[in-house]
Design goal:
alpha/beta; Aspartate Aminotransferase, domain 1; Aspartate Aminotransferase, domain 2; 2 domains; three-stranded antiparallel sheet; 14 helices; 12 strands
Length: 396
């Protein structure tokens, strides 16, 4: 008999993926260059040339067994050491290779982090708007996801409701900054306040409450934005990272967990992650990609296009009368729709070949997401279509 749990999940297909499929089909009809597809967060800028050169050098100089064999279950030691050193240089931390666990992207990092700090039945809090895949990530561990409603003014943390929901059952708080879908970056003030509240509750409840910090957009920051490194402010923290965005490598599925050296049981957690891998089969990311990223660990792609695109879209949205919090990073923007039901709003936009994602699955009905990781030229061509859509459908 097949699993009813996974069978039932087929009924909840990703809205984002459905819209991306619609955009691809529409592109076959009119040419994809004429479809203004803001559905999928797929990085659009090239990988750094240094990464490509490193890959070629590895293929020419290393043995096939070293490049294509299984890595150690915790990751290649030299790679883990280089990542730890990079984080220490950049964020004044004290990581060693024993605090780094290599994963298949940020999803793999979160999958391990959730299991290492929770028991079935524990509660995990996250903050709206949030990445919809948090539900399957958490639901399938036996833990329970509870969503703190959004602070619509600025998408910083709604601390009043958070403190009400922070019960003794909570073992972890899952945060995402810079945030998908809003593009908002939690300020130093926000992170400090979050840490202060959690320390008091740890003392009150007599157990650790971990921060799991989902950070794949950490390097996509805009000018002048206050962007603290979360683990600088809270000991019991696990940083989950992916090179998918910083190096434009989403298909290579490479990332890591960085365990704060100051956290409880920091000497055990990476080894525990190795044991978790035995149960979920989410282990041994590709050896050649581990080696390649370790050689460009302080580099990023040229991501300036994302800020240019953001400013073009944000300014046009404000001009057209939308309510919108200005992003501080990522390649997402999350405006309020021009009618109560964002699903209806986004469906109307399809007539203008604008592919927008309704915000219901992100925990914010009435909002919609635009992923602007596309060519600036295409963004510019989409703005008249957006203006026509608003004028024709809403008389604005």
């Amino acid at each position: 008999m097949i699993s009813e749990q996974y069978k039932n999940m087929l009924k909840g297909k990703s809205v984002i993926r459905e819209l991306a499929e619609f955009a691809a089909a529409r592109g076959k009809e009119i040419g994809y260059e004429n479809v203004f597809d803001y559905s999928l967060g797929n990085p659009s800028v090239p990988v750094p040339k240094e990464f490509t050169e490193t890959m070629l050098d590895l293929l020419h100089t290393k043995s096939p067994a070293e490049l294509h064999g299984y890595s150690p279950s915790l990751g290649i030691p030299s790679v883990r050491k280089k990542i730890a050193q990079s984080l220490n240089r950049r964020f004044d931390m004290e990581y060693t290779e024993n605090h780094i666990f290599m994963t298949t992207g940020a999803a793999g990092a979160i999958a391990h982090a959730l299991r290492v700090v929770t028991q079935p039945g524990d509660e995990i809090l996250t903050f709206a708007p949030f990445f919809p895949e948090y539900h399957p990530y958490i639901d399938l561990t036996g833990a329970v996801l509870k969503v703190v409603p959004a602070n619509m003014d600025d998408f910083q943390i709604n601390f009043t409701v958070f403190e009400e929901m922070l019960t003794e059952k909570v073992s972890a708080v899952l945060i995402n900054t810079p945030n998908n879908p809003s593009g908002v970056v939690y300020s130093t003030e926000t992170v400090k306040k979050l840490a202060e509240i959690l320390r008091k509750k740890e003392e009150e409840y007599g157990h650790e409450i971990f921060i799991i910090s989902d950070e794949p957009y950490r390097e996509i920051l805009f000018e002048g934005v206050d962007a603290p490194y979360v683990s600088n402010y809270y000991d019991n923290s696990l940083s989950c990272y992916s090179y998918s965005k910083s190096l434009s490598l989403p298909g290579e599925r490479i990332g890591y967990i960085a365990v704060n050296p100051a956290c409880k049981d920091s000497d055990l957690i990476v080894s525990m992650c190795g044991q978790i891998s035995r149960g979920i089969g989410h282990n041994c990311p590709p050896s050649i990609i581990q080696l390649a990223v370790s050689e460009v660990v302080d580099l990023t792609s040229d991501m300036s296009v994302y800020e240019r695109n953001m400013n073009l879209i944000y300014n046009k949205l404000i001009e057209l009368g939308f309510i919108c919090v200005k992003p501080g990073g990522t390649f997402y923007i999350f405006p309020k729709a021009l009618e109560e039901d964002a699903n209806v709003f986004c469906k109307k936009a399809l007539k203008y070949d604008l592919i927008l994602v309704p915000g219901d699955s992100f925990g914010c009905p009435g909002y919609f997401r635009m992923a602007y990781c596309i060519d600036t030229e295409k963004v510019e061509r989409s703005l008249p279509a957006l203006e026509k859509f608003v004028k024709n459908e809403y008389n604005m």
